[in-house]
User: What shape does this take?
Amino acid sequence: MNEIFKDKTHIKKIFAIAIPIIVQQLSHQMQVWVDRAMLGYINPEFFSAVGNSLVPYFAVTSTILAICSGTTILIAQSIGAKDFELSRKYAECSFAGNYIFPLIAFFFFFFGSGWMFKIMGVQSPILEYATSYIKITSYNLLIVAIAATCSSILQGIGLTRIIMVTGIVTNVLNILFDWILIYGKFGLPAMNIEGAALATLISNFAALPFLFIYVIKRKKIPFKIKVRNIFKLDFNLYRNVFKMGVPSGGEYALWSLGNLFVVSFLNRIDIMAAGIYTLLFSIKGLAVILYAGFAHAGLTLAGQKTGENEHKQAISIVFKCLFFALIVCSVVTTIFCVFPKNILGLFTSDISLVNFAYPFLIFVTLIMFPQAVNIVIGYGIRGTGDTRWMFYSQIFGTVLVVTLSYILIFIFNLGLWGVFITSLADETIRGIINMLRFRKGRQFFFLRPYEAGKINTE
Assistant: This one.
């Protein structure tokens, strides 16, 4: 314990980065909760439709954010090495490069969502509701890369407060427009599920300029971004961002692919099973949000210390971040176990659904601790420049999740219990492996990471 609090300078830096990210991500998650709560009270089928929609949508947006983490890592390492000119170039080329995948994803969701939901096993009328919802939501992909790149630049520098402010503004606008558009206020027609999607779209578009202008104009940023350069793709430079970010993007894509298989399994059991599953994992996501800021702080500071060639300090900082994350998990676990029905009652008025789901929510608390280890240590590994390792470990995780969940659901007839038992096994096994990898170094396993500091910048 004394070792954790010995270096108070690092602790201050950790909290300065972590707290704004926690608030921003909590605000973002609240957008989802407000949508689901308002729609769930109108029609339980809307509840399930949003649940099915958010699985593939968050799969894509998480992949986009993961790819953009290449920007964060390289800027953090460049700043640690005091190379501000290289930091500027990475920031500029990332705007154009990071936009490619979201543009492709937009066309896929807009034109192929109905086909995708059928593959997932979604049935009418939820199929039509989900398709309508995600077609509107897909327009967010036209701006998500810009927002994610701005956030990645700021996080690499260590300036995260404006990210928090933008998240709060977005959430306030979303709640306001949800109320107006879902229920039909001020003479507007009640748009129900389409209103929820449109409210999110409007609030995201309205808040983006604040973040972009800050990145371009703020004097605290140690380099000056030239606006004319953000429209140019310097591929020779961006390929470094691409090489660093794509394994992280692939990792999230694989995790999401496994989740899509699980949802498709549940849709074969009961049309509401997928909705319950996504709700419970959304609630569990609260714990992740409350400690994810410490994971991001670990990535940023580990990257900067790697740039300074201070590898022991990088490891020490990440374990401090893990300590705080586990404290958060302990507090959230206590709340979930004491008030499970009250928490579920915030999202649905269906008493039978609450009574069915609350034992699963209590079980979910067991998953939080190994998941915290997996996430925080994983971010630390990425911060040192090794993004391939986490991609390889996720290949194993996805195969495990799909195979074991299928066996437990359909062969042992465990239903939802099979899914949550599988998740506990996956997080525990990979958490142990990644902990060993981070403590022992790359020689412990046969996979070799990217060497920090040996990145082609010509």
In short: Residues 399 and 434 are 17 Å apart (CA to CA).
